[in-house]
Amino acid sequence: MKQRQLFALGLLVAVGLLIASVPAVAAQRQATGPKVPDVSVAWTTGTPVPFAATRWDGEYVASLNRVYFLGFRAADNTTDGSIWYYDVATDTYVDTGRDLRVPISNYAISALTDAHGLGLWVFGGRDNLGNLVTNVQVYYPAVNKAFDVTTDPWPGKTPSNCVSLPGMGVATVANKAYVVGGVSFSAAPISCVDEQSAQTWAFDPNAPAGTRWSAAPNLNVARGYITTAVAGGRIYAIGGDTNVAGTLFASPTVEAWRPGTAAWNDAAVADLPVPCDESAAFVNSGGPLRGGIVLSTCGQWPNDLPDTYFFKANVWTDIGAVNESRRNQAGSLIKVGTTVKMYIAGGYASDGFTALASTETGVGGPIAARPGFSRPAANSAGRATTN
User: Fold this and answer.
1) Domain annotation covers residue 7
2) How many separate domains does the chain show?
3) Which of 150, 255, 298, 331 has the most CB atoms lying inside 10 A of its own CB?
4) For the whole model, what pTM was predicted?
């Protein structure tokens, strides 16, 4: 009897030790899980643009220390094709006196070199009447000239053969542009179908005229207004929108693809913590943010969140917030003295329709007070699309 009691007592002690060890094992597993980067981004308000502008992009030309803008959607919802630049050294904005041949909004710039030198290329877009166009256009800063490249129009289509609007879904790798996804609309003047494209197209500026486009693998998830970034030789398609009966719904989906490989990878790439669209992303080559992707804000059409998210080691972290929430902003890395900064300009304010003239620059630093994911992630609906 005593022996049985001792056996039972020993069994209870063993079970107790096992239970006590579970939290320690869990803590050990948690400690060896994905590392959260100890970094943050501090955003500083800069000199405003001379006009309110949205649905545009900027491209930094290091040799001139300028950020070029190839037109914009104005505060009165018209489309202005004038080409401006921001002179980083003098902190001033200058009108080049040139316009795009076909003024557009909803574009992203790809800097590519061909026989004529460095050109700033744009693909498709939306004209002043609201039509989706197929024009491919280029501006050469060195000679201050713009051209409409009629031999190689934008070929992107949605499943119903509508012209697709890629928006900011453009990435540049090894002197080729990759244009990712797109949306179309049933509302006039487009009058096609409310849907999205999964297509990816590659553009080679040095291929013979008429052969510059080639098809690349489709996305796993069709969507438009994707924010792109290039890190580690891979293109990341971040967030975006699906068009459901004329209303845009933001997506948390993130996919990655290395040009030359067979397919986009969705399953192994961490999605955003909240749905985001219509933003600007940055990949810093040095400093605390080196090698990661910074998503400057989180659009959720027709509104937006000021959160800044950082992607590294397949983890998304909230590491800061801009001073003035926005979407559809122009964005580019710039060099101020010896410091590389993330620069954003204009865009739509958080009310969904006010165009901004304000600018901000962001730099990475040590972790301060890391914000949590406390803001609502709802997708707004019920407004007619004016994208």
Assistant:
1) no
2) 1
3) 298
4) 0.88
Helix, strand or coil, per DSSP, at residue 209: coil
Average pLDDT for residues 369-375, to the nearest whole number?
A: 43
Q: Which residues pair with 307 in a beta bridge?
A: 321
Q: State how far the Cα of 242 lies from the Cα of 245, in Å rounded to an integer.
A: 10
Tell me the β-bridge partners of 243: 248
Q: Which CATH number belongs to the domain containing residue 192 in this structure?
A: 2.120.10.80
Which range of residues forms the domain containing residue 124? 38-366
Q: What is the mean pLDDT of residues 219-230?
A: 98
Query: What SS3 state is found at 7?
Result: helix
Q: Among the residues of the chain, which ranges form H helices?
A: 2-31
Q: Which two tokens stand for residue 84?
A: 């401006």
How far is residue 134's CA from residue 156's CA, in Å, rounded to a whole number? 8
pLDDT tens digit sequence for 239-260:
999 999 999 999 999 999 999 9
> Is residue 52 situated within a structural domain?
yes
Residue 305, domain member (yes or no): yes
E strand or H helix at 307: strand 307-312
Distances (CA, A) of 118 to 152, 257, 260, 305, 354: 18, 26, 24, 35, 34
The reply to whether 170 falls in a domain is: yes
Backbone angles phi, psi at 82, to 5 degrees: -70, 140
